Amino acid sequence: MRGKINILIFLSLLFPLTSPAWAHEKREVADKYQFLVGFLNEPAFSGDMNAAHFTVTESNERGEVPVTGLEATLQVTVRANQQEIGVKLEPIWNQPGSYAAYFLPSQPGKYVFQISGTMDQAPINEIFESGAGTDHFDWVRDARALQFPSPIETASVSEGIQEIEQERKNSKQALWLGLAGVIVGLAALMVAGAPIVFRPRSR
Predict the structure, then answer these.
(1) Structural domain range at position 24
(2) How many folded domains does the chain comprise?
(3) How do residues 121-133 score in pLDDT, each as one tens digit?
(4) Exposed, middle or buried, 40 (CB in 10 Å: 0-12/13-18/19+)?
(5) Is residue 59 located within the same domain as residue 158?
(6) Is 117 a residue whose pLDDT tops 90?
(7) N or C, which end of the chain is more exposed by having fewer CB within 10 Å?
(8) Domain check: are 127 and 37 in the same one?
(9) Which range, 101-105, 147-151, 173-177, is most confident?
(10) Stretch 69-82: mean pLDDT, rounded?
């Protein structure tokens, strides 16, 4: 019996770590909808593509029913570091009632998701804050601290991109200069050959 109890305790501790929405916030909205909101990929890291992710269900006699079609009536605004951006809301394929607003968090820290619009003609304006708890599980983490064996130098990448772009510009300039030289050469040949072509024939 003690062994079975230990197994149950182990499974109960393991489940929150394997749950796909372990840092999502659940909230009742408009007295009948259940929102579950957080990052699509958790834990979230700076520099990695992610999304504001939420699922919406409605309670009725059949239980919790997914609410679909909200991409047409709801908008998502993402805020971080005193900046904000509106992000397009998209339904997640083959997951009714699940939605994602994709963006790339560029800095670590706390992010805020504002979901606004209408649902069944009822106004919706809900704000969900990552890192609202004390554990900060759903903060965006600094990816640089986990880079191994050596950190990716952003400056070096930027310099490399600039060098490639400069080489492209130089190649275009060389091409145009070459074409100009060919045109000038042809023009010179035409001018030089004109007296010969138009010389009157001797009788």
Answers:
(1) 14-151
(2) 2
(3) 999 999 998 765 5
(4) buried
(5) no
(6) yes
(7) C
(8) yes
(9) 101-105
(10) 96
